UniProtKB/TrEMBL annotation:
Keywords: DNA-binding, Phosphoprotein, Two-component regulatory system. This is DNA-binding response regulator. GO terms for molecular function: phosphorelay response regulator activity; transcription cis-regulatory region binding. InterPro entries: CheY-like_superfamily, OmpR/PhoB-type_DNA-bd, Sig_transdc_resp-reg_C-effctor, Sig_transdc_resp-reg_receiver, WalR-like, WH-like_DNA-bd_sf. It comes from the Bacteria. The keyword DNA-binding applies. Residues 3-117 form the Response regulatory domain. GO terms for biological process: regulation of DNA-templated transcription. The modification 4-aspartylphosphate is found at D52. SMART domains: REC, Trans_reg_C. GO terms for cellular component: cytosol; protein-DNA complex. PROSITE patterns: OMPR_PHOB, RESPONSE_REGULATORY. Residues 135-233 form the OmpR/PhoB-type domain.
């Protein structure tokens, strides 16, 4: 069973976190200081580190950087009360796989943990099933968002987008012609605990508009000032 190291100095946060992880069947160890965490990762087979940034002895970012530099290849999820986007970016740059801003829901944390373990091949893995031969598929005409395949088509041209860009466009397409508020887009795509700048959403919308225009897609994203955005068809595009 996966071994999780919780690095958190706040007992009120650490205690329910440890109990929840143990109920899920993980082997859990908790430490309250960064230097101790570095030693435990060095001396113990740890699969995942849940790392608070505000530790009493050293900064959590330094802990993350140190264990990565020492060759640790397990998962690292940062837990932080800092609302600065720079801290989150630096955390990912020095080796973290994911982050959660405090306060966070334990169900959200467990989902992030399971997703990270799936990506790393840790824990029970589904038995691969033989794949049926694929039939040739002709791209549909018009503009289409294929949610199951996570692909976008503008006529017979596939529009290449990032994961977040696809999620934004898929949400807009789910209510094509209706307005989706900025709050709903941020909460559904970046989750309700996102404390980063809302300019992240604006930048994503800007890139999507450019890609739709460059692919001559018969659809466009319209801004509804003070409310949000709307995806609408443009028959003559």
């Amino acid at each position: 069973m996966a071994h999780v190291l919780v690095v958190e100095d706040d007992d009120k946060i650490a205690a329910p976190l440890v109990r929840t992880l143990e109920r899920e069947g993980y082997t859990v160890e908790r430490v309250a200081e960064g230097l101790v965490a570095i030693e435990r990762v060095r001396d113990t087979a740890v699969d995942l580190v849940l790392l608070d940034l505000g530790l009493p002895d050293v900064d959590g970012l330094d802990v993350c950087r140190t264990i990565r530099d020492s060759g640790y290849r397990g998962g690292i999820i940062i837990l932080t009360a800092r609302d600065g986007e720079l801290d989150l970016v630096v955390g990912l740059d020095v080796g973290a796989d994911d982050y959660l801003a405090k306060p966070f829901g334990l169900s959200v944390l467990l989902a992030r943990v399971r997703a990270l373990f799936r990506r790393n091949g840790i824990g029970p893995q589904p038995t691969p099933q033989p794949m049926a031969p694929l039939e040739p598929v002709s791209p549909p005409s018009g503009f289409r968002v294929d949610v199951e395949a996570r692909r976008l088509w503008a006529g017979d041209t596939e529009v290449q987008v990032t994961s977040k860009e696809f999620d934004v466009l898929a949400l807009l397409d789910s209510k094509r012609g209706a307005v989706i508020s900025r709050e709903q887009l941020i909460n559904d795509i970046w989750d309700e605990n996102w404390y980063g700048s809302t300019k992240t959403l604006d930048a994503t919308i800007g890139r999507l508009r450019q890609k739709l225009e460059e692919s001559h897609a018969p659809a466009r994203i319209t801004t509804v000032r003070g409310v949000g955005f709307r995806l609408e068809d443009v028959p003559d595009a």
